[in-house]
Every structure is written in structure tokens, then in C-alpha cells.
Amino acid sequence: RSSAEALALAELPPVWVPDSSAAECVICDAVFAYLKRRHHCRNCGAAICDACSPARWPLWALPTSYTADTRFRDRVRVCLSCDDDAKNFQEAVLAGDANQAEAIYNRSGNVNLRTPFPYHEDRACPVHLASQSGSIELLQWLIVTKHCPTISRTVRGDTALSFAAACMHVDAMSWLVRVGASTVRDISDRELLLGALHAALDAHQLDPDLERRILAVNHAAEA
Ligand SMILES: [Zn+2]
Ligand SMILES: [Zn+2]
């Protein structure tokens, strides 16, 4: 499947279950009535009651097409099922558990791969936390299979590559650069870049003089 197709599918807003076919809450089976109002989950479109949709996600945690008609609110109602899936998915990605992450994604059908996690204060996306975990299997699934973009930055300006560098995941860094998902320019923090370079040299037991020569070339280029 092409990346354009994957993007179009990911951006397709949920279909709101019509009121006529939703007599009861899909989660607790309570029958909707005057005092049991019907609501819709902004993430999956299911008809749910108030008790089964206590979570409110910030707009940035959903694809923009899902919230096109909610310009005047900064948070939207989400059902318990979507909320649990998002939390469990974040946990699996952070743990670098590719099997678990894929299983949650496939079972749910409503996990967003291209938007930040609703409860991550720096607004990290799955590619960021996959890099933080260092799991190449997970990066492969997100970037190659699911066409997730790697140019996105968190609110702190961090990229997939800088997350991997901060955690000294040398193999993940190599993979990101080798498949063309990242470039060294993705790390704007020079100390972080040098730290990662040290880690790479240690990991691959390269000639320690190489780093000095690289730095000398760098300084010459800047002079
Ligand atoms: Zn309910
Ligand atoms: Zn939902």
C-alpha cells in the first residue's frame, strides 16, 4: 500500500453511528433516554453514554480531519475503549514491544499512529517513543509498513533521531539514517550529537582517532 493511500486511510474521519441505530451505549448497554443522553466518541464515532466517555483528548491527539467542526473547543470527548487502547498502545511502544503494539493496533482499529499520544506532555508520536525504546522491529513497522512520517517534532523540538540519540540506541540511530528516515540535521543539540557519536564509536569499536579527525574536518569547515 502506498504512503498516500495509508495517509488517506488514517485521515478518514470516524463514521458517527446514526441515532436511529444506536438505542443503547455500546460499552455498558444502558438504554439512551431523556436522562441518559447519547454522546459520540470523537475518535471512533461510537454512540456512548456520559459515564462511558469520561476522557477528553486535546485536539492535537486526533487527525485534524476528525475535528474539523470543533474549532471552538480544545478538547473532545473520547470513549473508554479508545482511551484504554491509546494508553496501552503507548505503554507497548515505550516498552519496545512490537508484537504487543501491533496486536493492540489491529484489535482496536482506532489507534492513531501519526498523531501525538493524548497523555504525553511533550506531544511525542509513536515514532518518537519507538526510537526511545530502541526497537528496530517497531520502527520498521511504523515507518516502513505503516508509512509514518519521521519529520515530526515534539513541542520541545525532538525528532525520532534525537530520541534514539538521547537514549544511546546506536543501532536504532543507524537504522533511521540508513533507511533515509532521518538525517543528522534532525539533531540540533550539538552535545547530544557528540554524545551519540561517542556511543557509536564505543559500540562499533572504531578507531578512536576517527572522531578527532571528524571533529577537525568539522572545525576546518566552519573556519
Ligand atoms: Zn455507557
Ligand atoms: Zn471511541
Automatic annotation (TrEMBL):
<dbReference type="InterPro" id="IPR013083">
    <property type="entry name" value="Znf_RING/FYVE/PHD"/>
</dbReference>
<dbReference type="Pfam" id="PF01363">
    <property type="entry name" value="FYVE"/>
</dbReference>
<keyword id="KW-0862">Zinc</keyword>
<feature type="domain" description="FYVE-type">
    <location>
        <begin position="19"/>
        <end position="87"/>
    </location>
</feature>
<dbReference type="InterPro" id="IPR036770">
    <property type="entry name" value="Ankyrin_rpt-contain_sf"/>
</dbReference>
<keyword id="KW-0863">Zinc-finger</keyword>
<dbReference type="GO" id="GO:0016197">
    <property type="term" value="P:endosomal transport"/>
</dbReference>
<dbReference type="InterPro" id="IPR011011">
    <property type="entry name" value="Znf_FYVE_PHD"/>
</dbReference>
<dbReference type="GO" id="GO:0008270">
    <property type="term" value="F:zinc ion binding"/>
</dbReference>
<protein>
    <recommendedName>
        <fullName>FYVE-type domain-containing protein</fullName>
    </recommendedName>
</protein>
<keyword id="KW-0479">Metal-binding</keyword>
<dbReference type="InterPro" id="IPR017455">
    <property type="entry name" value="Znf_FYVE-rel"/>
</dbReference>
<dbReference type="GO" id="GO:0031901">
    <property type="term" value="C:early endosome membrane"/>
</dbReference>
<dbReference type="InterPro" id="IPR000306">
    <property type="entry name" value="Znf_FYVE"/>
</dbReference>
